[in-house]
Amino acid sequence: MSMSFSGQVALVTGGAAGIGRATALAFAAEGLKVVVADLDAAGGEGTVELIRNNGGEALFVSCNVTREADVRQLMGRTVEAYGRLDYAFNNAGIEIEQGRLAEGSEAEFDAIMGVNVKGVWLCMKYQLPLMLAQGGGAIVNTASVAGLGAAPKMSIYSASKHAVIGLSKSAAIEYAKKKIRVNAVCPAVIDTDMFRRAYEADPRKAEFAAAMHPVGRIGKVEEIASAVLYLCSDGAAFTTGQALAVDGGATAI
Ligand SMILES: NC(=O)c1ccc[n+]([C@@H]2O[C@H](COP(=O)([O-])OP(=O)(O)OC[C@H]3O[C@@H](n4cnc5c(N)ncnc54)[C@H](O)[C@@H]3O)[C@@H](O)[C@H]2O)c1
């Protein structure tokens, strides 16, 4: 599928690793200039190096998405370097397994909501005016299948991802006539550091994770990246306000 993205500009938060890195690489492979934002400078610079080694153009900006000043500066650096922002993938997120609801702490609640909800909200708050000024754009926010249903022992994470879908749908309606589309992507279990931290210590959990997906395996980061690129592409021009599950059939059961 040709997506005709050439010469355009994409921003990826959480671009130092996992799903974000794979999506930054996929945007660059389509000829986009990519701004990689993350807390992790070594990982973010690593993503930029991979893109440049493949002949692409990219820039790392250090950013904590929970801080408004950082997010404002991130959008400023993007425009300064590349003149515009066509696509944003707001993907930085954290996951903490906090046990049953009554076992979670206030600090865990604030940490998860801070990155996963406030971070996405702040990013959109500073991206939408740029896209409005240039006459359009597309935003994809990373939710999760945990944003579509229950996630036992991860209720705060689940609530945070439901919130990402609420932010995405509401913004999609508010900006629909302005040629800005906003969608969420909802991965099931994907093979990333986040997954390995959560599951690989216990092989039974890894087996259980594979079995949760009707296709019989967990997902690959590239399989989320291709969904994000589709949602940004002109092929998705009539698709906005959606929460697209990319989940090996898990939510169809
Ligand atoms: N891996 C999965 O199975 C899975 C499933 C569903 C949804 N997700 C979601 O996908 C997204 C990416 O996760 P991943 O699996 O690639 O994880 P990851 O841990 O490999 O990558 C997350 C990245 O976000 C960055 N980050 C964390 N807090 C940040 C902050 N405050 N400011 C800026 N950057 C920050 C990290 O440094 C890291 O580079 C997350 O939103 C996660 O909730 C992951």
UniProtKB/TrEMBL annotation:
PROSITE patterns: ADH_SHORT
UniProt keyword Oxidoreductase, yes or no: yes
SUPFAM superfamilies found in the cross-reference section: NAD(P)-binding Rossmann-fold domains
Key word Oxidoreductase present: yes
Highest taxon in the source lineage: Bacteria
GO MF, one example: oxidoreductase activity
Family: Belongs to the short-chain dehydrogenases/reductases (SDR) family.
Protein name: Putative oxidoreductase
